[in-house]
Structure formats: structure tokens, C-alpha cells
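A.,

Following up on our hallway conversation. C-alpha cells first:
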């Protein structure tokens, strides 16, 4: 059995799928979808598994299983992460691949959706074994992936080093340089500037657009951020730099609050020096639960799924929830918040900045180019704003959740591509 951390990380996107499923019936009805359209959306184009032997450090050979799902490629080559997890199944990956197709359509990047990975607990592998397992998986997959077929990226328990091994093995097989085979690489090997904080920054662009739409302005805007990892810390940092009052932040151990606003660079320094948020001077200690219901204008869950639930949804004080984590709001809580007119900006829109900059990395690689930071920032802003400006009117007109509005838009785009190809 995996430990709790493994299980938890693995369940986040499953919750997103559950939330999307909840909205599907009303979308089918609203778009007056025919059975053949529902079928084409419900069916992954390719799902396959490979079995491969790897020599372990002990000298013994062990068999591994890898999967890849290429869900829908009507809008372009499929794109999606490679996840290493002991409980990975094809069915689970199908859900994640569907969400990737939805996200890419929402921010109008010319990709379909994919997801894959290996059934393995990386904590049980040495670095050498991890490299050999990765390379063996890519040897099995090399005919089915490619810059114009299917482009992998990092996901749970894979990182930029794993992406380099994937690229290197693929290039050895093809006998040429192909950096565009994978995104999420280090800068020195064709990675993109901004990628490390693109998810947080994309979310901040969307948040500012939402504040503007709701007419919420001024120095009284209070922000609470749950999670202080890659996404949460960068979101807090960017918002602080923009002059917002970030009043509360938390990590897995505890939270801190200062109603006048925290000095975020000092909090970052404190956390990197001590390893925790506790004992930060000039702040009150709070629990993660207290952060969710703290007195704030904007709540940014950026850690785990199902943090806003049946128990606390009625006590949320924020007017806007920016879902930077995947599925931080349970399905029951979503209904309550909709009833209370709290604007929930759904994960599929709020955290899409990461895949947008991955797309930019792919373009840079195809053109053997490196873009300056300013160019990437401007293009990211434009992509995120366009998505928001298209989804928001649907949300207002249809008086539905913003998640439903976003899903509806993506589905229309995928179906349009299928129609133009003559598949419908
Ligand atoms: N990294 C990306 O580009 C990206 C893109 C899309 C979605 N996401 C989603 O954003 C979320 C965060 O990702 P990340 O890359 O920042 O992960 P991370 O591992 O870097 O950080 C996770 C943070 O959450 C904190 N945390 C763990 N348990 C907690 C708890 N019970 N309460 C409060 N905080 C807790 C950890 O201490 C850590 O600070 C995940 O849901 C992830 O799927 C990330």
C-alpha cells in the first residue's frame, strides 16, 4: 500500500474529474449534444500499456508496467504529464488525459490531452534504477510519442531530470536532436524561462481580471494562501510584489496570520532557513482549517484537494476562491458556494498557466530559439486574459458555476475540431 502522501497526491485530479462529471449532464443538455458527440468525448482515442524488464542494482531483473493514454487529438498532438505512482491505472489516466484536453482547449493551445506513467514507487528506487526505468519505458513508447504526436511533461514524482532522460533516450533512438519531444526541461537543455512560476502567475492574471469584474479594488483586499510550495509560495510572492495584502499563509504543519499583511519575502526567507512557517515574528499562528475560514477577500487553496468541504463551505468569508490546487473544493462545497454567490475560479482555468508556458517551450524548441522573459510574460498574460474574457460572460449569462462555463467552452471547441475533420 502507498503511504498517505502518495495516496493524497494521486487523488487530487480524480476529484477534479468528479467535479467535471457533475457538470456534464447540464452541459449535454445546454449544448443539445447528440449521442455521437457524447460518445466521441467519452472515448479515449488510444490507451495502451507496455511491460518492460529493468536490471536492478541487486543484479536481478524486474518487470515494470507503463501506460499512456492519448485522449483526444482533434485540436493537435496530445500533451500531458508522466506520473510515477504505485497505484497508477489506465482508467485513472483516462480521466487525467480528458482534463488535459479540456485545459488545452480552454486556453486555446493547439494540443489534445494525454497522460501516462509507470506503476512504481520512486521512493523504493535508487537514482540509477530510476534512470534505467525511465529510459526503458521510453524505448517502448518511442514509436507512439513525438513532437507532432504526443508530448510528455513532468507530473507527480517526475521532474526536470526525468524529462532530460526521456529526451536523451528518444534522441538516441531517432539519431537526432529533438528537444521538442518533451517539456519541463532545465533551461540549459531547452527549458523555458517563467515555467517555474507560470502556474502561480497565470492564476494571478485571472484573479486580477475577476477582481476588476466584481469591482473589488483598493488597499483593503486581503488574501489568504493555503500551501507554500511551488505554486502557493510564488502566488504569495507575486501578489505581495503587486502590492496586495497577503494576510495568511500555511504549509502542511501550520499557518500564520497578520491582518495588516505579512512581509512575504521575510516569510520565504524564514521558511527556507527554518524549514517551517512556525515562529515567524509579528504573526499569529493559525491552523490550516482556520486559514480557510479566515477574514479575507480572496482565498487561494494551493495545496491539496477537498480542503473546502461540506463542513466549512458555509463559513468561508472570501468573495473569490482562486483554485490553484487541483480540486480543492469538494462537489458539495461547490454547490454551497454557488448558492452563496462566492465566485469559484475553477482549477482548469486558474492553474492553466503551467501548460501555456509548456506550449511556449515547445514552440521555442521547434524554432531553436530562446525567448526573453518579457516576451513570455506578455504572451502568458494574453492567453490567460483571453480565456477569462471568454468564460466570464458565459458564467454571467447562464448563471452557472464558472467550472461549468469553462467546461462548456472547451467541449464546444473540441467538438468543432471533430466536426471540421469530418468525424461528426
Ligand atoms: N506545480 C505546478 O505547476 C502545478 C500546476 C497545476 C496544478 N498544480 C497543483 O497545485 C497544488 C500545489 O502544487 P505544488 O507544485 O505547489 O506542490 P508542492 O509540493 O511544491 O507544494 C505543496 C504545498 O502544500 C503544503 N501542504 C501539504 N499538506 C498541506 C495541508 N494539509 N495544508 C496546507 N498545506 C499543505 C506543503 O507543505 C507545500 O507547501 C497541487 O494540487 C498541484 O496538483 C500545480
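Then the amino acids I'd put at each of the 424 positions:
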Amino acid at each position: 500500500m502507498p503511504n498517505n502522501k502518495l495516496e493524497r497526491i494521486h487523488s487530487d485530479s480524480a476529484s477534479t474529474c468528479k467535479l467535471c462529471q457533475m457538470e456534464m449532464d447540464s452541459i449535454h443538455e445546454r449544448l443539445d449534444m447528440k449521442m455521437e458527440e457524447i460518445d466521441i468525448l467519452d472515448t479515449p482515442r488510444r490507451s495502451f500499456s507496455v511491460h518492460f524488464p529493468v536490471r536492478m542494482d541487486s543484479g536481478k531483473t524486474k518487470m515494470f508496467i507503463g501506460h499512456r493514454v492519448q485522449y483526444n487529438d482533434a485540436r493537435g498532438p496530445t500533451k500531458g504529464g508522466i506520473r510515477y505512482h504505485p497505484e497508477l491505472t489506465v482508467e485513472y489516466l483516462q480521466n487525467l488525459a480528458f482534463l488535459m484536453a479540456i485545459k488545452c482547449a480552454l486556453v486555446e493551445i493547439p494540443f489534445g490531452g494525454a497522460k501516462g506513467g509507470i506503476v512504481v514507487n520512486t521512493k523504493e528506487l535508487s537514482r540509477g534504477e530510476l534512470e534505467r526505468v525511465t529510459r526503458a519505458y521510453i524505448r517502448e513508447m518511442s514509436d507512439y510519442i513525438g513532437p507532432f504526436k504526443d508530448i510528455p511533461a513532468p507530473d507527480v514524482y517526475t521532474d526536470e531530470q526525468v524529462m532530460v532522460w526521456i529526451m536523451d533516450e528518444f534522441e538516441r533512438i531517432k539519431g537526432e536532436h529533438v528537444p521538442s519531444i518533451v517539456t519541463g526541461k532545465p533551461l540549459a537543455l531547452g527549458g523555458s524561462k517563467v515555467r517555474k512560476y507560470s502556474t502561480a502567475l497565470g492564476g494571478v492574471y485571472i484573479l486580477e481580471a475577476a477582481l476588476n469584474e466584481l469591482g473589488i479594488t483598493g488597499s483593503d483586499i486581503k488574501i489568504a494562501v493555503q500551501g507554500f510550495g511551488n505554486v502557493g509560495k510564488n502566488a504569495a510572492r507575486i501578489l505581495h510584489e503587486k502590492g496586495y495584502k497577503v494576510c495568511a499563509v500555511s504549509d502542511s504543519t501550520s499557518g500564520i496570520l497578520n491582518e495588516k499583511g505579512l512581509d512575504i519575502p521575510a516569510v520565504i526567507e524564514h521558511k527556507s532557513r527554518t524549514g517551517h512557517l512556525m515562529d515567524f515574528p509579528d504573526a499569529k499562528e493559525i491552523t490550516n482549517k482556520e486559514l480557510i475560514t479566515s477574514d479575507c477577500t480572496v482565498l487561494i487553496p494551493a495545496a491539496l484537494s477537498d480542503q473546502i468541504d461540506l463542513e466549512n463551505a458555509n463559513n468561508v468569508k472570501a468573495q473569490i476562491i482562486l483554485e490553484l490546487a487541483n480540486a480543492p473544493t469538494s462537489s458539495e462545497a461547490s454547490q454551497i458556494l454557488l448558492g452563496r454567490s462566492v465566485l469559484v475560479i475553477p482549477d482548469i482555468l486558474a492553474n492553466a498557466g503551467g501548460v501555456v508556458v509548456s506550449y511556449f517551450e515547445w514552440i521555442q524548441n521547434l524554432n531553436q530559439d530562446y525567448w526573453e522573459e518579457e516576451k513570455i510574460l506578455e504572451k502568458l498574460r494574453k492567453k490567460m486574459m483571453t480565456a477569462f474574457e471568454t468564460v466570464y460572460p458565459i458564467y454571467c449569462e447562464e448563471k452557472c458555476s464558472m467550472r461549468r462555463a469553462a467546461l462548456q467552452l472547451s467541449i464546444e471547441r473540441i467538438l468543432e475540431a471533430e466536426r471540421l475533420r469530418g468525424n461528426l
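The chain is about 45% helix and 15% strand. Curious whether your intuition agrees with the design.

B.
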